[in-house]
Amino acid sequence: MVKKTAADLFYDLAGGALYALGIYTFASSAGFAPGGVSGLALMARHLWGVPIGAVTLLLNIPLILFSLKILGKAFLLRSLRSMLFCTFFLDLVFPLLPPYRGSSFLAALYSGLFTGSALALFYMRGSSSGGIDFLTLSLKTLRPHLSIGTLMLLVDLFILLLGWPVFGNVDAVLYGATATFVTSTVIDKLMYRSGSGKLVLIITSPESSVAEQISADCGRGSTALLARGTYTGRDRQILLCACSRREAYKVKSAAVRADGSAFVMVLETNEVFGEGFRSLS
């Protein structure tokens, strides 16, 4: 329990710092706003000079109240802790540091990079930075047929377009869209590609020694499924072998060495859990 709490605090601390770095140092300094509640807070700062973190926290209050019964207290309390870390860094720490004064396009790229990294850290610990996440997750719970991606896209699009009149130029929309795209890409890479791998499917004869060859060459086990070819009518064996990306070539080579007529498919897997890979817990 102590280790888990310490890990949660560490992730919140790192996530809060990265979040503030992306939002305050890059997005705010370059004069654009990404999507979400943070984008609205950046617009409020541009118009009235109010603190970004405090405004973000205030805007999250109605979303928290709306989501309380749907998402549960535990998730919202963890998210509130993450939001407080973000507010601390946004309003008290990073205003003391020099802002970025370089290219606006580079600012958009780095804003998306650091913000996406922060959100991935929060999500990995079952937390969130709040904002549109609360709304979309709640609507998804109430209306399971709706697409979260579509909902977030529509909300973000509205906020991005709002940046045009607020900042007075269309570049603010383009930079905001760039930062939002990079944020989504970074979240996907960190949360899924870190545990990604390959799944090698091998169709071979039941008498072949492909499984033994894979085990000998790669140290990987495989799972055999019995099948029948619809064209030949002959019994076939399908081997499934989950492996890392760098092992995929060795598995394929082992299969071809054992059975030159084998049919081999190498597929992408977003995440692999279990023995020899990441723990399910």
UniProtKB/TrEMBL annotation:
Indicate whether Amino-acid biosynthesis appears among the record's keywords. no
**Which CDD domains did the record assign?**
YitT_C
Which segments cross the bilayer?
A: 9-27, 47-68, 80-98, 104-124, 145-167
The keyword Nuclease belongs to this UniProt entry's keyword annotation: no
Q: Which domain of life is it from?
A: Bacteria
Every copy of the DUF2179 domain together lies at 220-274
**Record's Gene Ontology CC terms?**
plasma membrane
| Record keywords, A-Z | Cell membrane, Membrane, Transmembrane, Transmembrane helix
The residues forming the signal peptide are none
Localization per record: Cell membrane
As for membrane topology, the entry says: Multi-pass membrane protein
Instruction: Give the protein name, as stated in the record.
Output: YitT family protein
Q: Which organism is it from?
A: Candidatus Egerieimonas intestinavium
